[in-house]
Structures are given as C-alpha cells and as structure tokens.
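Backbones bend. Shown next:

***
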Amino acid sequence: MLGLMNASVFEMVAIWGVLLIAFMGLGYALFLRKQVLAHDKGTQGMQDVWNAIRTGADAYLSRQLKSILPLILVLTGVLFFSVYVIPPSDEALKRFSNLTPDLVRLIVGLGRAAAFVMGAFFSLTVGQFGMRMAVEGNVRVASASRRSFAEALKIAYRTGTITGMLTDGLGLLGGTLIFIIFGIASPDVLLGFGFGGTLLALFMRVGGGIYTKAADVGADLVGKVEKNIPEDDPRNAAVIADLVGDNVGDCAGMAADIFESYEVTIVSGLILGLALVSITGELKWIVFPLLVRGIGVLSSIIGTYLVKGSKKEDGKGQDAFKSINRGFYSSAAISIIAFLFLAHYYMHEWRAFFSVAMGIVLAIVIDEITKYFTHTHHAPVKEIAGSSRTGAATLILRGLSIGLESSAWQFIVIALTIMAAIVIYWGQPVVFILYGVAMTGIGMLTLTGNNVAMDSFGPIADNANGIGEMAHLEPKARQIMADLDAVGNTTKAITKGVAIGSAVIAAVSLFGAFLTDVTKVQAQMGIAESLRLLTTGIRVSEPIVFVGLLIGAAIPCLFSSLMINSVARAAALIVDEVRRQFHIPGLMEGKVKPDYKKAVDICTISAQKELVGLALIAVLSPLLIGMVLRVEALGGFLAGVIISGQLLAVFMATAGGAWDNAKKTIEDGLYGGKGSEAHKASVVGDTVGDPLKDTSGPALNPMIKVINMVSLLAAPIIIHYRITNAGVIISIALCVVVIFGAILYSKHGVLSFRKKSEVGF
C-alpha cells in the first residue's frame, strides 16, 4: 500500500476492509432501490400528481447545476494553484521522497483539485440521487397505505435509507481512497475533498430552502388562511411547488448537509491524527477514525433493516416512531460494542473508545432535547397550541421563548461534551484534546445512515399524504399517511438538531486543525515556538482578535437575514400568483385545473438567483478578515461564527418545528380544529417558522463549515504575505467589492415586490 508508510499488516488489511465496507454501503443502497421500485405506483390519478412532482424536481435540479457549475470550475483551478504559493508540507515531501519538490507540488495540487471535484460530485450525487429516489418512493408509499400500515412504513423508511447509505458509502469511499493513495500527506488533499462537499451542501441547502419555503408560505397564506381550504387542495396553484419543495429542501439539502459533516469530521480527524503521529510515531491515530466509520456503516445497515411495522392493516396501536427508534438504538448498541473491542485490541487504550462513545451519547441526547421541544406529546408544543386561543401574537411569542430555551440547553450539552474531551485526555498536550473532540464528531456521525433515513422519511411521508389528498384516496389510507406524516415532522426536527450539533462539533474540530496547520507553517518559517499559534492560542484579550470575534458573530446574523428576506420576497410572488389563479372562472368549483408549472417556475428562478451571492459571502469573508486582520484574528473570527451560528441555528430550527407541530395538533381537532380562529393563528405561526426551520437555520450548518474550510486552506498562505504586498491589497479590494455587491444583490427588489403584492386583482 503505497501511501501507508510503516503500517502493520493489520492496518493494511483493515484499511482495505474499510474500502470494501464503503462499497457494501453503496451496494445496500442499490439493493434497497430495487426493492422500492418493485412496488406499484397506484392509480392513474396518483401517478398524475406524482409526475407533476417529479417533473418539477428534475427541472429545479437541472437549473441548479447550471447555476453552480461555473463557480465549481473556477474554484477547482484556485485549489490547484493554491499549493504553489507555499512550500510543500514535510509530510508530502516524506510521502513522495523520491520526487523533486516541484513534482510533489504538482501531485498534491492535482490531488487537491481532483479531491475537490470528487467531494462536490459526491455531495451532488447524494443530494440528487437521494431526492430522486424520495420522489420514486412517495407515490409507492401512498399506494401501499391502501393495503397496510406496515408496508407503507417499510417503503417510506427504506427509501430514505437509500440516501443514508449513499451518504455513508460515498463519504467513506472518498476519504479512504485519498488516504490509501496519499498516506501521511492525505490532509493536504482531504482539504479539497471536504471543501467540495461543504460548498455543494451550502448551494443545495440555500437553494432548496428558499424554494421549499417560498412555496409553502405562499400556499398556506392564501389557501389555508384566505380561502380556508385544505393544505394539499388541488385547486391551490402552489400545491405542487410545495410538494416539490419538500424534496429539494428536506431530501437533497439535508442529505448534502450531513454528507459534508461526515466528510469534514474525517478531514479534521486525520489532520489532528497526523499531528499525533508526529508526536508518538504510531499510525493508529489516523487509521482509527476510518475503522470507526467502517463500523458505523455496518451497524447502520443492520439497524435500518430492523425498522418495520406489524401486519395489522389499519396501523391502529402501532407507533412508527418507536419502530424507527428501535433501528436507531440497535445501530448505536452495535457500534458501541464494536468500538470497545477496537479500542482494546487495536488502540490499546480506553480514551479513544470514550471519545467516540461520547459522540453517540451526544447524538442521542440532542435527539431527546429536540424531541422534547418539538414533539406533539410534550409540554412545549402543547403550550404553543394553547397560546393560539389568544391569537397569533401570543403563539409566536411562546414559540420564540421555546426556541431560545432549547438553544441554551443544546449549547450547554455541547459544552459539556467538549469538557468531557478535556477530562478524557487530561494532562495531555492540547492536540490530544482537540483529537478527542474530532473523535466525538466522528462518533456522533457514526449513525449517519440512520439519521439521513429518518430525515428523508419525513418528506417522503409528507409527499405521500399530499398525493393521497389530491388523488382523493379512501379514509383508511389517508389516516395511515397522516400518521406517518406526523412522525415524519418529528424525525425531521430531530435530524435537524443532530445536523446542527454535528456542524458545531465538526467546526470545533476544524478549529483545532486550523491551529495545528498554522503552527506547522509557522515552524517551517522559523518562527519561535513561544510565538506559534498552538502555544499562544487565540488571545481574545488582544483588541484586533476581539474585532475578528465580533465580525464572525455578525456573519450568521447577516446570512440569516438575507435568506429570510429571500424567502419573503419569493413567497410574495407566490401569494400574488395563487391569488391571481383563484380568480380564474371555474377553478374554485373544480372545473378548471390551476397552472402548477407557473408556481414551480417562480420558486425555481427565485431560489437560483440567491445561490452564488450567498456562497460568495461565505467563501470571501474569511479571506478578507485573514488578509486585513491577520491569522490570529481569523481564529477569533472562526470562534465568533461557530458560537453565533450554533445559537441561531438551534433557535430557528426548534422554534419553527414547534410552531409546525402546534399547528398540526390543532388541525387534528384541538381548540376547534381546522378553520377555527386558533387554527388561523397557528398557521400564521407556522408560516413565520417555515423559513426559520427549513431555510436559514439549516443553511447555517454548511455556512459555518465553508468558512472553516476556507480558513484552513487560506491560513498557510496568509501567513506568508503582509498586508503591504500589492497582490494582497488588490485581493482585499476585490473581496470588499464582491462581498458588498453580493449583499446588495441579495437585497435587491424588495420594494418592487412589496408594491406588486399590494396591487389588487
């Protein structure tokens, strides 16, 4: 094995075994795909609705690819040439010791660029293929609901599992291949792999989030509030766009989001593991994370296959959530036992086991916290529903309160988790502690297959319910789909919590990798050890570092503002279009069908307009801070982004999820049910929460990691150049112009849209 220098026989066999497991995960996804496609698609009416959803989803994904491809091509070139700015790393020179430094640069540059393309392609594949399978599954779930609860549950969950196993398999495949080829030099190349996956996740999160919530908010405000018709009433022109949005936002967006967390934790784990290899001389620190990931894929395969209902046709007395949890906890138990053996017989220590086990515990705790604040069975959602009796204002206030409280508790849990890493590696150099945090992140995402399956289950069940309503299926089938849809809302909220928590742990791990990488370059430059970043730390007492911290904390606020504004602008167009179509003679009587394609086109175009501008803010802001305030202030900037981004993301995701489920409890008959004043108040709360929980909140996850990845790539270059350098001055000016141009572009058209929305028909 060329890349693994000084590897033992066990390590060589184990790494090839991990590669085989990656292919097993992909094979399992294809096996499930064949199972799902074997089920029937129901009546012609169901297939007509399904075809409209499929066509809209395909059109969105095709347009999205055209929007982002030019930026991907430019960044591929940038990443290739980035290795020519600074000398090759000592690890790269050692790995390719038989080559000249110039050839080493070329190989690493090609590897980094190729890894960037591979990461972007894998992220795109997870999102697009997973979403297309979700579209294939939704109509089959609707059809299965006419036969039995168990069959509908099995199809919905296994369709979601396809996306989960793609995430597992491709993430593990990419990281392992790079490690096999580049060995101890792999961190130089893995940065490209992580950046590619992270950037594509940001695109898919931003675009999908704007699309889905523009359609949802517009459809609800006109259909439910103004016209008092059901959610998926076929007379509503935005109903197909809403169903398409569930897929492009919750399937494609979330899958790409968790995939890039999966990538990033491997990147940070291997960078920090390499630092420990240089201290201890043992390869186990960089082999262990890959073995943990391999175990996670196997445990997810077993756990996801255990999710099934009983054979009772109507589903009475059955709890889909308990069945899904059974699969999740089975995977967790298998993983923990396997980690124990791995730590004892390979690592010959318990600290590594406690670190990864802590990650699984963290995922479970975040699950439970999110469940408490968003599930219909618990006090917070019941209290929000109760507030609906006194109007929308009190309902919104109660939701804001609960969102803020949940954010505080999750923050405390993550703080305790990092504290646990300190305790586990007590008395060791700081690199060991940072490695422990990275292993916690890897442990947390051990059950990625289960988590993504749970998330995709939500929009699949939601779409099935919508197809059932539009195709006028019988009451028994509609009740089964409604029950699955309610469970799907909770699983989506839980996986959003896990995604946010994993984003923070991954960002902290990258933060540690940032410190070690900068220190390594400072050592190459001959800077005294007492002045290196790993020794001094990020000194917040330094005014310029504190300035970086403040600006970093402001970025998530700005990003969230621009995204919410984008949703409001696009939703206003949808409201206008739906209102216009409701005035078409014969539409309300069901004699004329609405023009669904018009609403789909509005959402697609609106979402694509925002993609590149918001991505440029995330990519260029750390470059600007690093060049102007220098590398230590850039570290403060990263800390501010992580803290502010985590608080905002949890607050928005939880508040939005709680408002949504409060509305559903009222629609089930509480406080007068559908059409009541309490219901109208809850719909307003839900529409306020929609862009929070499904657009700006989730988009902060990839944004945090994009900023961290760019900082990791740029910091070694920034150290070599002073602000007085002509090239740096030009780069600063370009960054300022592009960032402010992107902000103005993202804010454009608000007044004109407002005027348009005020025009009557």
